[in-house]
Amino acid sequence: MTLVALPVTAQDAPGAAELAVRAASPGVIVNAESGDYTAIELELQGCRLVQTLMTNQGADQGGSVGVQVLRMDLRDLDPLTGILPAENTAHGHQRMMLVPSQSAWEEIQQAGEIFSQMRERATERGDEENPDAVNGARTLRTQAQRMFSADVVLGNFGTVMARTHVMQMRGDRGALIYPLVAPMQITLDPAAAEAALDAINDLRAGPCAPEDGISAEPAPEQAPEETGPAEE
Fold it and tell me: Which residues of 187-215 are buried (b: 16+ CB within 10 A; e: fewer)?
């Protein structure tokens, strides 16, 4: 048996930014009334901010435990309004809204239109072919979403969709990728939120600067140097 060496990046210890973001993870939040729980973890993967949310809400009604993964690449954020405060949770956790840049949002919307068309066609086909089957259209929609997810991973919808999207995982459907329908929100532990946001903003000002960068004002044109009359 041979051991396969891990990539160098996987061997490196997490840096200060990764640790700061991880420390802001809210962890497990329990609803005192219903007993339902939601676990939220934050992670920084290079320039990509990842929030993994797992909840058992609806499990008492036969639903499976749901997992939602929000992936937002810092390079796809708007350079001015990329991170905005949002309404905090009932448990006192801090929420921030991550706003894509105009060009990134246009790419996401284009993919979203194709996504909606694929689902609509699958629904129509399912209703026609399986008019008496409760899950006919749903099965075909899932198949269409798997095709969409594969295209996203392969980069067929462009770089932005490949790195900024929503992924949901359920036992009966597997992992499916969805385009954002609105600016995503992340939830942070208020005690560690400031340090995490500082680390994120440092990356946005450096190696993970938004690709829709703000162009500097053009330098004023210099008057041409005066030269004497040309010698004949």
Answer: bbbeebbebbbebbeebbeeebbbbbeee
CA 75 – CA 182 distance, rounded (Å): 17
pLDDT tens by residue, 12-70: 688 999 999 999 999 998 888 877 888 999 999 999 999 999 988 765 655 556 899 99
Residue with tokens 């140097």: 225
If you search the block for the tokens 């991550």, which residue do you land on?
A: 98
Query: Which residue, chain included where needed, has tokens 């005066």?
Result: 226
How many CA atoms, within 13 angstroms, populate the side-chain half-sphere of residue 105?
13
**Rounded CA separation 59/171 (Å):** 12
Q: Tell me, letter by letter, the H, E, C secondary structure of 54-97.
A: EECCCHHHCCCCEEEEEEEEHHHECCCCCEEEECCCCCCCEEEE
Predicted confidence (pLDDT) per residue in 108-152, tens digit:
999 999 999 998 888 887 666 665 555 566 778 888 999 999 999
What phi and psi values does residue 73 have, to the nearest 5 degrees? -80, 130
67: CB partners within 8 A, 6+ apart: 52, 53, 54, 168, 169, 170
CA dihedral 12→13→15→21, nearest 10 degrees, is 120
pTM, to two decimals:
0.78
